[in-house]
UniProtKB/TrEMBL annotation:
Its EC number is 3.5.3.11. It comes from the Bacteria. Belongs to the arginase family. Agmatinase subfamily. This is Agmatinase. GO terms for molecular function: agmatinase activity. The keyword Metal-binding applies. The keyword Hydrolase applies. Keywords: Hydrolase, Metal-binding. The lineage of its organism: Bacteria, Bacillati, Bacillota, Bacilli, Bacillales. It is an enzyme of class 3 (hydrolase).
Amino acid sequence: MRFDEAYSGNIFIASQQDYKESQAVLYGMPMDFTVSFRPGSRFGPARIREVSLGLEEYSPYLDRHLEQVNYHDAGDIPLPFGNAGRSLEMIGEFVAKLLQENKFPLGLGGEHLVSWPIIQEMYKKYPDLAIIHMDAHTDLREEYEGEPLSHSTPIRKVCNLIGPQNVYSFGIRSGMREEFQYAAESGMHLYKFDVVEPLKNVLPSLAGRPVYVTIDIDVLDPSAAPGTGTAEAGGITSKELLQAIHLIAGSELNVVGADIVEVAPAYDPSEQTQIVAAKLVREILLGWVK
């Protein structure tokens, strides 16, 4: 994919065609090759773009308009279907290019494994990187049925790379007993069930640090986001997730990139999952891109 060419399909609202002048770059990672339950998240990025056309470009939460952020929608990375290893390499190469040119990368998944090569590239540029992870699931397995490339493994891989003490997980309500034991014994920061209150307590300790934020849409309760591969009852509301985004926007964090993953449109004919994801993208662009 050439960065200086306009994406020929649907683009997110208010996207600028000039890549070189952009502050942030939105890109899709249409991969769902390692999921353990329901596939379909490879269609998430395209549908999030499409439903964004129903959004206002102005945020009443932040009193900002998308015309105030110069961002470019680069479209989807053309990942080879079924080839997880090569797909991860291509995502890493793509993000490395963005970071070389000092862009804010905002990725759309795709399954959660797509976050792994992004964070690898982030860590190369920011050795003191911290991760904020919002999810229903721990994602701390080392493998799933013998396969280390699985959407249930990315946060364990990240802990091994940057140190578990630099990983902060919120909203967790599902995982193997061994995963929760690892979190408790390793020194990582895992907060069960809630996001907003523990995030308030954590943010001051991360002030000034480069932080990458990864959001699995299933951190939301299925009543708010049924369109995901592995829905998990007992989640937070969309209002609470927006509040978390705005808390980060109002903090002293140096947010260096983010992703929203696991939107699977086929399971939500009401479109509420895709619509909330599009709104999250708008608020991230307006709140986190300085």
